[in-house]
Amino acid sequence: MGKHRYRRRDLHDPGYIDRAIADVVAESSRRRGRVDLPLNIGDNPLVAMVENGDLQLKS
Fold this sequence. Notes:
2 helices, 0% strand
């Protein structure tokens, strides 16, 4: 599977804070620990966990 580039969104977009919280929760889940801010990642943690087999989707 290919690499997914995590898209940065503008601070003023609607729902920015909700997405930021979801991003931190997902990254914390991937690291299995605390995440320090500012969060500096280049991919989507959920997509990476699915690709690595750490997270399985139910069909």
